[in-house]
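To the wet lab folks,

You asked to see what we're planning to order before we commit. Fair enough. Below is the target structure as tokens, and below that is the sequence we designed to fit it. If anything looks off to you, flag it before the synthesis order goes out.
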């Protein structure tokens, strides 16, 4: 004869046991990385070319090369940032082009003119070789994804900018601003956009977002009244 009470009791406890085991087994397990192994594989000409990969990339490479090799201008001589104590031809060119580009957009958007431009000497990462100047040349010269900004500065900050340039003793790319440095390393005849600097006047200076945020210790940009 089967004892149903006993059988039901055992079944009930068996189900509870299975439920407990299931819940325990489903608990969160912490996994730790004890060791990472790897080796450096040099990318050289000894690695055989994979034709399938090359064929996939080829149309994109050809399109990019066509765009990058477009001739923009001609350089009658090689320009490099090491040629110059307080200013360089390549830096002046970079600042002049940046000022002109910023001014065109700023006039259209804000109906105002950009007074000056200041960039950083360290941002020039290549030379402009004698011969054709291409889009590739421009990318090699400034291989960054910085944004062009215009900062509204009071004349007081323009004076700080001049002091910074003298203290740095580097030919930072500069346009629209001129001054004379005397034998005591003091700035004289400070002019901006063709007029003497007025400490209470608002000036619009083109630069990049890296410098605007205090890059290369150009902290005077952070005192700007407004940024565009």
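Sequence we intend to order:
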């Amino acid at each position: 004869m089967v004892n149903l009470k006993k059988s039901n009791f055992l079944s009930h406890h068996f189900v509870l046991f299975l439920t407990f085991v299931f819940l325990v087994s489903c608990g969160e397990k912490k996994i730790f990385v004890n060791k990472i192994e790897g080796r450096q594989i040099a990318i050289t000409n000894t690695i055989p070319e994979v034709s399938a990969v090359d064929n996939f990339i080829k149309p994109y490479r050809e399109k990019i090369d066509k765009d990058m090799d477009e001739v923009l201008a001609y350089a009658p001589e090689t320009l490099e940032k090491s040629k110059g104590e307080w200013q360089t031809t390549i830096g002046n060119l970079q600042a002049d082009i940046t000022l002109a580009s910023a001014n065109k957009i700023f006039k259209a958007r804000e109906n105002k003119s950009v007074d000056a431009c200041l960039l950083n000497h360290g941002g020039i990462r290549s030379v402009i070789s004698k011969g054709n100047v291409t889009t590739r040349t421009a990318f090699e010269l400034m291989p960054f994804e910085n944004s062009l900004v215009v900062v509204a500065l009071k004349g007081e900050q323009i004076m700080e900018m001049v002091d910074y340039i003298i203290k740095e003793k580097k030919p930072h790319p500069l346009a629209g601003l001129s001054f004379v440095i005397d034998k005591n390393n003091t700035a004289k005849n400070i002019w901006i956009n063709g007029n003497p600097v007025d400490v209470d006047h608002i000036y619009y200076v083109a630069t990049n977002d890296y410098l605007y945020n205090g890059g290369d210790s150009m902290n005077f940009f952070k005192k700007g009244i407004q940024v565009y």
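Structural context that might help your review: Strands lie at 71-75, 116-118, 131-134, 148-154, 174-175, 177-181, 187-192, 195-196, 202-208, 226-227. Residues 4-25 form the longest helix (22 residues).

Thanks,
Computational group
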